[in-house]
Design a protein that fits this description.
The complex is a heterodimer of chains A (about 120) and B (about 110).
Chain A (H helix, E strand, L loop, with lengths): L2 E4 L3 E3 L5 E8 L8 E6 L5 E8 L4 E4 L8 E5 L4 E6 L8 E8 L6 E4 L3 E5 L2
Chain B lengths: L8 E4 L5 E6 L10 E6 L6 E4 L13 E6 L2 E6 L8 E9 L4 E4 L3 E5 L1
Parallel strand pairs in B: 1-9
Antiparallel strand pairs in B: 2-6, 3-4, 3-7, 5-6, 7-8, 7-9
The chains are: A mainly beta (about 120), B mainly beta (about 110).
Chain lengths: ~120, ~110
């Protein structure tokens, strides 16, 4: 059974850094793109970016380009989303998602990681 | 402002049928498959419909999807209280090179 297990909630101050993780189970991790999707409190879903673990090819969404770094460690089947300097507006729930063969379809979702940024 | 347009909310009685619309453009829905996601309160979204009208294993046939030109529709029959959730449509956008989503429709089963 495919599962994506995300790291726990993070509470940070503006300007701090954080890296959250997403570990895949039950499938060949290196063969499927992993995307990150943000959901701000009470809002909809927003695409952040995607990485192909097989060769670390990474694409960022225009709203986060330069603000975050997506990476992967295939030896432990884990993808990462990292901020070097958080802002209050980064507060939200972050989901990692496996992309289906078709690029429009996100077929398995992690449980989400809450990142709360407040002074 | 979401790239895809959905009604913010809908309500219906148990046992009834409801449809949720999702409107886009030729850059997204018009030339790509549409997916639908169900987000129960306090949980992660779950894939409900993919490639316009296919159901993943385990999704009951009360849920259906269709697409026409630049719009898509999610149908739910035999509504149950457990169907109360937010529903999102999503698809690839060829001009933005990202997956775009609708703003979500909050379904209330009265």
């Amino acid at each position: 059974e495919v599962e994506l297990e995300q790291s726990g909630a993070e509470v940070k101050k503006p300007g701090e850094s954080v890296r959250i993780s997403c570990q895949g189970f039950g499938y060949t991790f290196s063969s499927y793109w992993i995307a990150w999707v943000r959901q701000k409190p009470g809002k909809g879903l927003e695409w952040m970016g995607i990485i192909y673990p097989g060769d670390s090819d990474t694409r960022y969404g225009p709203s986060v380009e330069g603000q975050v770094t997506i990476s992967v460690d295939t030896s432990i089947a884990t993808a990462y989303l990292e901020w070097k300097s958080l802002k209050a507006s980064d507060t939200g729930m972050y989901f990692c998602v496996r992309r289906h063969v078709d690029k429009s379809t996100l077929d398995f979702w992690g449980q989400g990681t809450l990142v709360a940024v407040s002074s | 402002q979401s790239v895809l347009t959905q009604p913010p909310s809908l309500s219906a009685a148990p046992g009834q049928r409801v449809t949720i619309s999702c409107s886009g453009s030729t850059f997204n829905i018009g030339n790509n498959y549409v997916s639908w996601y169900q987000q129960l309160p306090g949980t992660a979204p779950k894939l409900l419909i993919y490639e316009n009208d296919k159901r993943p294993s385990g999704i009951p046939d009360r849920f259906s999807g269709s697409k026409s030109d630049t719009s898509a529709t999610l149908g739910i029959t035999g509504l149950q209280t457990g169907d109360e959730a937010d529903y999102f449509c999503g698809t690839w956008d060829t001009s933005l090179s990202v997956v775009v989503f609708g703003g979500g429709t909050k379904l209330t089963v009265l």
